[in-house]
Amino acid sequence: MLASLGLITVALAVEANAPQQDSATSTDAAPASAASASAAPAAAATAPAAPEAATAGAPSAAPASHAAPVIPASPETLRAVAALAGVKTENVQPTPVAGIFEVVRGSDILYMTRDGQFAFTGDLYQVPSRANLTEVHRREMRRKLIDAVPESRMVVFSPPDPKYTVTVFTDVDCSYCRALHRQIADYNRLGVRVRYVFFPRTGPNTASWHKAEQVWCSADRKAALTQAKLGETLAAPVCSNTPVEQEYELGRAIGLEGTPGIVAANGALVGGYLPPDALVEQLKKQQQP
Asked: Domain check: are 48 and 153 in the same one?
C-alpha cells in the first residue's frame, strides 16, 4: 500500500544523528509551556523534535500546491478523532495516508490512527517531490500566529526599500542577540527589515524581562533596545500594557527553544544568529518557488 501511495509515512528525526544548523542561539532554560508539556501522549513525550527544513541536507518544505492531496474525511470522523486525541476539531486534519490524521497539540504536530490506538511523532515526507508536509503546516501555523501581532507592538529596524522581512525573537541579555544587533546596519543595508519581538529566555519576573519592559516603556524604543543590548542601564520605569508577556507566549506557542529566533515572512524558522550575508542567502532560498 505504501508503494502505491508513493509516500514514506513517517521520517522520525533522531536528534543525535540529525545534521545541525549553521546558526547560533542562546538556550538558557525558560519555564516550560504548560500546553506543550501536557500535549503529546506519554509514549511520545520524550521523542526528539524534528529538524527544521533549513537544516543542511534535509528536504525542504515545498509549497502547499506541490504537496500530495489529502484523503477526505467527514466532519463526523474529524470530531471523533479530536475527541480521542483530546483536542478541538479544528486541530485535526486528514493526511495523504489513509487512516492517519494530523493532530496539533500546542506547538507540537503528531500523527494518530483513526481509532486512537496509536500515535507517533515525526515528519511526513512525499518522496517524489521531497516535500516535508509537516513543515508546510508548521510554517503556516507560525505565520498566522506572528501575523496576528501588529507591527505597532514590535521594535522595527528597516531600510527605506526592504527586500526581505524577518521577525526576530530577542532577549536583551542573549550574547548571540547582541551579536546580531551589532550588525543591524549591515542587515538593513542588504535589504533586510528586522522586526524585533521580545522573548526573555529566563521568563517572567527576571532581570531580562524587566529590561524588555523598560525598552518598551522608553520614549525612543529603538535607541533603548540598542542601549540595553550594549549592557547600558535604562532610566525608563516599567509601564503598563507592554507586549512582553504576549510575545513571550507567542515564542512558546511556536516552540521556540533559544534566541535569537529568526522567522522568515513565509513562517520558516530560519534558525539562530546568522551573519548578514548568510541570512540573505537563507531568505533567498525561502523565496524560491
From this structure: no
CA-based nearest residue to 178, from 26, 75, 5, 6 = 26
Interatomic CA distance for residues 114 and 82, integer angstroms: 10
Same domain, 279 and 243: yes
Report the percentage of the chain scoring pLDDT > 70: 78
* 231-267: b (≥16 Cβ within 10 Å) or e: eeebeeeeeeebbbeebbebbbbbbbebbbbbbbbeb
Point out the residues that are catalytic.
171, 174, 177, 201
Radius of gyration over alpha carbons of the chain, in Å?
Answer: 20
198 vs 191: CA distance, rounded Å: 22
Q: Say which residue, 79 or 3, is predicted with more confidence.
A: 79
**DSSP per residue, 38-90:** TTS-GGGTTPPPPPPTTSTTSPPPPPGGGSPPPPP--HHHHHHHHHHHTS-GG
Please give the average per-residue pLDDT across 9-14, as a whole number. Answer: 38
DSSP state of 259: B
Number of domain units in the chain: 2
51 and 115 inside one domain: yes
Instruction: For 75-91, write each residue's pLDDT tens digit.
Output: 999 999 999 999 999 99
- Three cell numbers written together for 274: 546568522
> What is the tens place of the pLDDT at every residue in 211-239?
999 999 999 999 999 999 999 999 999 89
Which H or E run includes 158?
Answer: none
Query: For residue 197, is pLDDT > 50?
Result: yes
**Cα–Cα distance, 147 to 102 (Å, whole number):** 23
Give the residue numbers spanning the domain of 105: 2-34+41-139
What gap in Å lies between CA 180 and CA 273, rounded to an integer? 6
